[in-house]
Amino acid sequence: MNKDRPKTSQPTDPLATPKATIGRLSLYLRHLENLFQAGQETISSNKLGEALDISDAQVRKDLGYFGPMGHPGVGYRIAQLREKLRSVLGTNRDWNVALIGMGNLGRALFGYGGFHRRGFIISALFDQDPQVVGSVHGNLTVHHISELSVLTRELGLQLAILAVPTPAANDVATRVQAAGIVGVLNFAPTRLTVPKDLSIVSVDLGSELERLAFDVNRRLIPSDDDTQAPPLE
Amino acid sequence: MNKDRPKTSQPTDPLATPKATIGRLSLYLRHLENLFQAGQETISSNKLGEALDISDAQVRKDLGYFGPMGHPGVGYRIAQLREKLRSVLGTNRDWNVALIGMGNLGRALFGYGGFHRRGFIISALFDQDPQVVGSVHGNLTVHHISELSVLTRELGLQLAILAVPTPAANDVATRVQAAGIVGVLNFAPTRLTVPKDLSIVSVDLGSELERLAFDVNRRLIPSDDDTQAPPLE
DNA sequence: TCGTGTGAAGAATTTCACAGCA
DNA sequence: TGCTGTGAAATTCTTCACACGA
I need a labelling partner for B147 at 20 to 30 A (CA). Which of A35, B74, B187, B210 fits? Predict the structure, then answer.
């Protein structure tokens, strides 16, 4: 699909934004928020890239996907660019988020301030376990998962954070989708195979540590073969 | 650097493994562990890819970087491939991990079983706050950060999980590096700029939610311009 | 026949380099 | 002069397609 699109040089087509770029938009925004707080007015692609370890050309390409944002000879106006990125990423408004699974990870995520700060409001808590249902965290009470549909409608829940045990993840994802939630942040180390339209982003903390271990191994052990890693105990 | 390497077709050069491949190795291993538990003996690149939503050619390319692992007409021997990937990723042995920062996130990560299961043993806890130092979690007592060097040596700590407030992250990373720890999993939403050799993997939970919001936005709002997102409320 | 390993083609992403605006 | 926007080149990653081993 997407044959030869004529080079009608639309300011740009957000639908064509490379996946790799999307991952960097958050980084740009994160840094811009800092600069904005600090009262700085403009920044060049060069400086912005320097702070994030990204080339200046890359920064310009990335930002260019959303129309001409920069001002030649000046750089990017921070307030304006921040607004644009917030709108692109959807953080210019609040999202109502369901947190599902109140085990260790779930409770921690509830306490983690980073979500709220970026416009993701945890508005309802759910768990499968009758022992846990009814317990109170902050100003919220844990509901049983069977109430998901009703509360999704009532509270206008749009996203869900899945912090449930791996074997339950797929089932819960299906319920979530059926309830009308449109996106899921999944912490279970398994691939979710869900009926239809549901945006999924998965975070596997174990995998991240493995990536780190791989990196360390490669850096510290310049062995060039398939031998075991040295003891190192 | 790395000019034109002659095509001496070494079985493969682990140093040349594409970054993208590395991210998939954990996925392969994760699925192989399941199959291994289930007692399955072999699997084809086709089946393995199907389970993970990766093309069969991609699977073969990825696995090929570590020498010929497959058996034509048979597939990959699960036990053998699992062993190889564990060795490549460094999970064929245990790692001693320091958990630094015992706030909400830190406490949760401590309770999260996924690390231990994959060979990452949390062996020491640290915090900056004197109020927190001395408190006990499981069979571990929280130490003050100033004891990092000593304990790193004593306990053979190799990796650290950073769950500290953003403003402290860089300072802590520097201490970690000075103590002799070689890799860090960073949860603070900031880029760590550390003196020298230290492997860093960062996870920004807020960014992941932003990625999700972007995805939902794009899927649900086929608007083609820079207009505000609709209310949707 | 089934299924790997792998050059070669193709697609995606990044870097280069420079015209042009403020 | 400073700095963006952007084609074109370079690089990296993925898919294709097929020879060959079990």
Answer: B187
Going by CATH, does the domain composed of B95-209 fall within 3.40.50.720?
yes
| Alpha-carbon distances, residue B134 vs A95, B101, B164 (angstroms) | 39, 13, 17
Q: Do domains B14-89 and B95-209 have the same CATH topology?
A: no
Per CATH, the architecture of A14-89 is what? Answer: Orthogonal Bundle (1.10)
Query: Is B191 in CB contact (< 8 Å) with chain A?
Result: yes
User: Distance (Å, rounded) from C-alpha A181 to C-alpha A100?
Assistant: 12
Angle between helices A45-52 and A56-64 (to 10 degrees): 110
Given this model, what pLDDT does residue A16 score? Answer: 78
List pLDDT tens digits, range B185-194. Answer: 999 999 998 7
Separation between the CA of A155 and the C1’ of C8 (whole angstroms): 55
Distance from CA of A74 to the nearest CA of B (A): 22
CA gap B71, B91 in Å, rounded: 24
Residue A5 has pLDDT above 60, yes or no: no
CA distance A170 to A222: 41
Q: Which residue in the set A22, A66, A105 is minimally distant from B226, CB to CB?
A: A66
What size, in residues, is chain B? 233
pLDDT over 90 (residue B21):
yes
